[in-house]
Amino acid sequence: MSTASNDISSRQEPLRLLAVHAHPDDEASKGAAMMAYYAAQGVDVMVATCTGGERGSVLNPSMESSAAAKRDLAGLRRHEMANAQHELGIQHRWLGFMDSGLPEGDPLPDLPFGCFALEPLQHAAAPLVKLVREFRPHVIISYDENGGYPHPDHIMAHKVAVEAFTAAGDPGRYPGTGEAWEPMKLYYDRAFNPERFQALHLALVEAGVASPYAERIAAWQEADTEGHQPPAPTHPTTTQIECGDFFEARDRALKSHRTQVDPEGFFFAVDAPTQRKVWPWEDYSLIMTKVETELPETDLFAGIR
């Protein structure tokens, strides 16, 4: 973890945060309450969406008969993204790449020609480097090396985010994409961290309420015959942002993605007040920093403010 100092000439300009996501709806399921919290504080928050989600499926049973979804899913998902953006109070940019789809089968089929996951890294990262140099974020949020889960677009989104973080400050790299800008901190999102699911599960069990996480917890315990603990994370939580007051905004953003999110489904199995009581945070791993900071953190801008 680098700790080289980085001068900020003026504290008058607003703080800026950029979250890099693979598809429309990823921003709502990963870090949405955090983004709404910071936006309400006056931070400039932007989501960069790498693909349009063109090869996605309709995952909400109530939308399966939608003529618009059958005729133009990509166009409908753009409208959904605009609604989610409004609910969170953030800015948004499309990077313009083609969804790779989630390959299924044995053996797995080849990825489609021209898709995001098959782009050469420098070609895929160039639009994000350009955006970083234009928007000038102090903090960048990304997925871990596994993409949060191993979808090829999520893994590629991780790669381009790390490339942009390391390259945007070097004037010799990516010529023609604007004046160099050096982001100060890179975090990986831990939206599906096992500690959170376990805490919610135990709270529901103690309250005598059926837990939607029981099957997941049982799988962890079966896989760990010694300690009965969740799997150790590749990148442990270093930073927790208390943003429970914005869980309802997060839920509205999720429901904006009508083709992708079932309002009766997993994301809403535990109500916001219960989540606020048990786990009022969204969790991150600090991966690289160019400013001094002390762990654990309660602010993504610790050391920058």
Question: How would you characterize the overall build of this protein?
Answer:
The structure is a single chain. With 305 residues, this protein is α/β, with parallel strands linked by helices. The chain has ten helices and seven strands. The chain has helices spanning 26-29, 32-40, 67-71, 73-88, 121-135, 152-167, 194-206, 214-223, 247-256, 272-278; strands at 16-21, 44-51, 91-97, 139-142, 185-189, 239-242, 281-289. It has a seven-stranded mixed beta sheet, with helices on both faces. Strand 4, helix 6 (152-167) and strand 5 form a beta-alpha-beta unit. Helix 4 (73-88) packs antiparallel against helix 9. The longest helix has 16 residues, at 73-88.
Regions with little confidence, pLDDT below 50 for 5+ residues: 1-10
Order of helices and strands: EHHEHHEHEHEHHEHHE
Annotation field: number of helices = 10
Shape: globular
| Secondary-structure class | alpha/beta
Global mean pLDDT:
92
Strand content: 5-15%
The largest beta-sheet arranges its strands as 3-2-1-4-5-7-6
Rg to the nearest angstrom? 19 Å
Main sheet properties: 7 strands, mixed
Q: Residue share in helices? A: 25-40%
Number of separate strands: 7
